[in-house]
Design brief:
Order of helices and strands: HHHH
Largest sheet: none
Structural class: mainly alpha
Length: 206
């Protein structure tokens, strides 16, 4: 019986020691968990306030990269705007030059045609022949136009586009006006004609 009692006492002592060690380990685990939780909370507060070193360094790198990207985008935008502006100015200058060239060509063509007609009229007036072939053609054209206007259908008006002032004058009208000017000028300058005032001559300068 003494042996059994000793065994029981030993088992009780062992169970007590085990329970003490278990409670000690639990308390250590709890304190360690609390300490880790506190450290995590402190680190989170440092990150939120921007005081954590391991957070500030990557953030500074990201901000630097963002600044470089913004500068590059601004330079690229300025270059694109300059390119578009230069292209617009070149197209505008080309359009103006083309318009001026076409206007000069049209003016030269009309001037040459009118000067040729006036020269032929002057030649006919000097020779006393005012019934040339194109004069008679103009008279015939006038008669035909009168007949066509009096008919049931009238000719359609000519459509003209562009920034031009166009006067729809026929050749016969131009020639008649020029002939009237040629006849009227000598009468106006006749009192001035004399020994010291020669008879004026009319010419058209280009």
């Amino acid at each position: 019986s003494s042996i059994c009692s000793q065994i029981l006492i030993g088992m009780l002592n062992l169970s007590l020691s085990l329970s003490l060690s278990l409670s000690l380990s639990l308390s250590l685990s709890l304190s360690l968990s609390l300490s880790l939780s506190h450290q995590v909370k402190v680190k989170l507060d440092e990150v939120l306030t921007g005081k954590a070193g391991e957070y500030r360094e990557p953030l500074a790198t990201l901000q630097h990269n963002m600044m470089l990207g913004t500068q590059v985008a601004g330079v690229y935008r300025d270059l694109c705007l300059q390119m578009v502006k230069h292209k617009y100015e070149c197209d505008l200058q080309g359009a103006r030059q083309h318009l001026e060239s076409e206007r000069n060509l049209l003016f030269d063509a009309m001037k040459t045609e009118l000067l040729d007609k006036i020269r032929r009229l002057e030649e006919d007036s000097q020779s006393g022949d005012l019934t040339s072939e194109w004069w008679s053609d103009g008279v015939k054209g006038r008669k035909c136009n009168r007949r066509s206007l009096s008919g049931p259908e009238k000719k359609k008006k000519a459509l003209v586009s562009g920034p031009f002032n166009v006067y729809m004058l026929r050749d016969i009208d131009i020639l008649e006006d020029w002939a009237a000017i040629q006849k009227d000028l000598p009468l106006r300058f006749l009192p001035l004609c004399g020994p010291t005032h020669p008879k004026p001559s009319v010419c058209l300068s280009g």
